[in-house]
Design brief:
Radius of gyration of chain A: 25 Å
Helix content of chain A: 10-25%
Strand order of the largest sheet of chain A: 17-16-15-12-11-21-19-18
Largest interface: A-B, 52 and 52 residues
Structural class of chain A: alpha/beta
Number of strands of chain A: 30
Oligomer: homodimer
Distance between the termini of chain A: 51 Å
Strand content of chain A: 25-35%
Shape of chain A: globular
Chain lengths: ~525, ~525
Amino acid sequence: MRRIERWDYIELTFRGHAEGNPFTDYEITASFTGPSGTLHVDGFYDGDGIYKVRFMPENEGMYTYRVTGSFMNGETAAGPDPLEGAFEAAPASADNHGPVRVTEKVHLRYADGTPYYSIGTTAYAWVCQTMELQEQTLDTLAHTCFNKIRFSFLPKHYLYNFNEPITYPFVRGNRRGQDPERLARAMKIDYGGDYARDITDFDCYTPNVEHFRRFDLRIGQLRDLGIEADLIFFYDYDRWGFANMKDECDRLYLKYCVARYAAFRNVWWSMANEYDIMTKTVEEWEGLGELVSARDPYRHMLSIHNCLRFYDYTRPWITHCSMQRIDLYKHVEETDLHLKKYEKPVVWDEIAYEGNIDMGWGNISGQELTRRFWEAFLRGGHAGHGDTFMDPDDVLWWAKGGVLKGESEPRLAFLLRILKDMPCEYLKAGEGIFDETVGIPSTEERHQVYGTTPAPGSSCSFEIHYFGFGRPSFRTMFFPEGERFHVEVIDTWNMTIEDRGIMSGVSRIDLPSREYMAIRLTKVN
Amino acid sequence: MRRIERWDYIELTFRGHAEGNPFTDYEITASFTGPSGTLHVDGFYDGDGIYKVRFMPENEGMYTYRVTGSFMNGETAAGPDPLEGAFEAAPASADNHGPVRVTEKVHLRYADGTPYYSIGTTAYAWVCQTMELQEQTLDTLAHTCFNKIRFSFLPKHYLYNFNEPITYPFVRGNRRGQDPERLARAMKIDYGGDYARDITDFDCYTPNVEHFRRFDLRIGQLRDLGIEADLIFFYDYDRWGFANMKDECDRLYLKYCVARYAAFRNVWWSMANEYDIMTKTVEEWEGLGELVSARDPYRHMLSIHNCLRFYDYTRPWITHCSMQRIDLYKHVEETDLHLKKYEKPVVWDEIAYEGNIDMGWGNISGQELTRRFWEAFLRGGHAGHGDTFMDPDDVLWWAKGGVLKGESEPRLAFLLRILKDMPCEYLKAGEGIFDETVGIPSTEERHQVYGTTPAPGSSCSFEIHYFGFGRPSFRTMFFPEGERFHVEVIDTWNMTIEDRGIMSGVSRIDLPSREYMAIRLTKVN
């Protein structure tokens, strides 16, 4: 009997109808019954008369399955796999923690219970570049700390992104499936110059399997590197018409992607990058978001990313807030307010990128980007990185992958280590129970200190006080009567942790008058 | 005939009653009639049976005066000055621009029409320190760019400020004039530790003239250095009871100060530092503010400074917004919003200080403080500086004066030079008419560029684009058809201005990928 790991997937292959348009004319579905009941999943057409079904067991134990659908070409057994069968889901191996899930409303854990601190990055169109560049991107990712990457199935048409993809998501075909009304609206908000849309002749009823097969490969490689694939369905950076397909093509595309990729445990779905500069209405986004939510048997992380206005993240199909800052000066610093408002995890997927391009969203320093990560995480949020340095060959990480030119990544790795080393699982914004500064109670003092919530049942007491752009030469701590704390001074930029021993009572902690310092306090029992 | 400069002051001296409490028992007033009518001013008691009247002529020309009041000790002529007389106000000398006035609702000019860009600093209790230290402070000011300084008549009891003043504003006297109810409220919000209030025995009906005479000296010296004296009447940093006097003592004190100092052209009045952490109610502040406004014949700049909540700056007696940031991350960046809301000049008197003390409000870098100045001024606001570096002798500029330890001052001088060199008088936040960046219209682009309003009747066209913490390696400008511009690249931190010649059409301007850069564009006719 076949045996796979829990949270890996089984793939079943069948021959079937190849005539007409198999993507739309036939269907294939399957039911899988395991230790916790039955799940129904869609299969998908993979070209050349081949249909596939993929399934990810979420439990250990025995599973049986049954495949049905109009795809069958008059044969009893479509083969090579049997239409009914069984397999065993074995315990997950050490590096397989399962998909990321929301826990305690606002936090993230892998399905096996391991906390997940999302240190994301962005390379929107990396899977559309040359195979050589894609391999380089994977090599870069293998040597960095990122555990999520945002990218799209679609090619990208935007600043530093004007090359053609190596393959297209749909086959050529006289603009079949493009929505003239949406296109007309899009042309009206056309941005001129290099942004001119020159819509070409695709048949949006016919996915290009060669294109999507490559995403199988890349999503699987990311999974093996322990990296979540935050897959973007739509964006407006388009000159091919994929941003303005007919609704039925949008739905075909979404169903196809969900059927094909949902069995990868590391998949996250992102309905759009910058939904609010596209031609779809909120009602249309709602319908598409609900479709993905309903079609995905595993309830993967699912959100929609804004440009100018946050989406209503309270919508039931949305698992987390996938946010772009909507203000130049203040954003991650409001993480705790968003957590309270939306009661869902806050993932800052765009907070400006480290780089030196002309655009304000892509030219902050490594120090500033790292500060933004600390501000987000210390309030219980998550954040995403991008690298946008000018390049003689026009290969910017954020667009195409390749190599990193910035300085922030090692600092983000350091932050991730600090997070993983915590005696408590989650951080949240706090008023600093040990830092009752003498003096006028002042708002900024409250904004500069943080606490952790002890895990349920735990008695740990732990705080990280982060000073950001502040440069105190010392801080005075007022430890609770009779309690002792291990004090460490962290330089978040220079990546050092200095042991200051055990303190109690009123204690002065000397600091180096530099930016980006933190104090870590751990109660000693 | 006596002759003084316009906007200087004439001082008249008279002998009168010395018995009882001359500060409350007698009065002295005067009327001055000049080219534009008659003004009534209060005189003040200066101790030892001496009363004085000061008057600042706001016009050139002949003035006559008449002094009356119950101060006269049965004599017809109180002497040594005659009770009636005349003098001439001559043209102001080159460095005398008159008092600062509000113009065009939101801007500031000296009375002679010279634009005033307020580069303030703060040394709250400098006139309460040793004479030697005061002289050092004046020497520092003489070599810096500051054209306003905030300080108080009162001694200060606060962090790094616990020494006794060299003189007190009132004489000793068994707590006469302290308000028990206010004191009780103040003790309730006592902050403990070093902040403990140990109210001592002053007679708040009897100003100490020795104390106030020293302010004559210092305000005059500041005037001669071209520095506005932003005089704070009240704050809560108090262990002597001056923060919680009876209402009649508050009024006595205000009237005394206005009578004594209003004739100095460089006076600004600040009702309070951090009004909202004091025991007075808004109704009480209103009454006191109106008193100062009504008693000051010259209508000097008058405001009230907040801690946690802005005051209602629309109140008629308030000439400008004297603001402290109420958010750690965003404040000066909202200058244009405040200008629109209050329709009064916006002066950011506290936006955190350059330094390295433990408090978040006093440990930002010189770079960050300078950035805040640029952000404020480029939106049409003004800003204030402070220097809070730890000192072995506990002499912090912001508290006691002395010397500066920070790096921002030369950069503020550079900014002031840039402002004074403008072909237009005022800056205001703009969307950057020449910077129609190709691409998605994005909020942050709009926040990073600025324009100037041409002065009335002027056809000048001028912009400064400031990139703050952004580090673009270039920017593309889209100059209007047929127009040519002189382009300069300004490094606001390294204080360099690089000439890039004349440009037109679509022009790329290379930049050094560093923070704190700006582009200056001046139309060439």
